[in-house]
């Protein structure tokens, strides 16, 4: 009876090892990927849309996402678009300090996403707060907007551009 228990235990161990070894290991390309996940709008009690939180999922095959603490450059690029006469146009605004028209973007710096000695892939989500999303200077009660984003890693690889769906925003 004891020998049978040992043989059954050994057989279960071998079968378990077989199933574990058959599991696929996740592998991702070294160029980061970025995919839109969600956009949540926050409103005042009066129903005016104030800010939004975008969520994107990402992968990176070699784990080099995020910037060093001394590096103050930007690695998550977000462009703003608004609907004008039925066409999406890159958002612009007047910059009083330069006297010029600037494009509207919400670029940010993402710090290291893994420990310094980590080698391997990364997979996760990025949330970015967009404030404000409404346009109080717009002559319209509602505007239709969209955001496009891309991500770069420390090697300079850039992800494809991921876009939000069209978002209807209440301005007032």
- CATH C-level: Mainly Beta
N- to C-terminal separation?
Answer: 80 Å
Number of strands: 10
Please describe the biggest sheet, giving its number of strands, its sense, and whether it closes into a barrel. 5 strands, antiparallel
Q: Into which percentage range does the β-strand content fall?
A: 35-45%
Can you write the helix and strand succession as a string? HEEEEEEEEEE
CATH homologous superfamily grouping: Immunoglobulins
As a whole number of angstroms, the C-alpha radius of gyration is: 24 Å
Tell me the number of structural domains.
1
Percent range for helical residues? Answer: 10-25%
Q: Please tally the helical runs, counting DSSP H or I stretches of 4 or more residues.
A: 1
């Amino acid at each position: 009876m004891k020998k049978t228990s040992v043989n059954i235990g050994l057989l279960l161990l071998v079968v378990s090892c077989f199933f574990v070894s058959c599991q696929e290991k996740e592998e991702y390309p070294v160029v980061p990927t970025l995919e839109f996940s969600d956009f949540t709008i926050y409103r005042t009690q009066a129903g005016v849309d104030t800010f939004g939180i975008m969520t994107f999922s990402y992968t990176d095959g070699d784990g080099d996402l995020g910037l060093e603490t001394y590096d103050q450059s930007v690695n998550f690029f977000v462009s703003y678009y608004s609907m004008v006469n039925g066409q999406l146009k890159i958002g612009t605004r007047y910059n009083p300090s330069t006297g010029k028209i600037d494009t509207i973007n919400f670029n940010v710096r993402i710090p290291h996403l893994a420990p310094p000695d980590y080698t391997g892939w990364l997979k996760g989500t990025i949330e970015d707060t967009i404030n404000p999303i409404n346009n109080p200077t717009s002559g319209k009660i509602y505007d239709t907007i969209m955001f496009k984003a891309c991500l770069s890693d420390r090697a300079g690889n850039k992800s494809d551009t991921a876009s939000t769906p069209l978002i209807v925003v209440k301005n007032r």
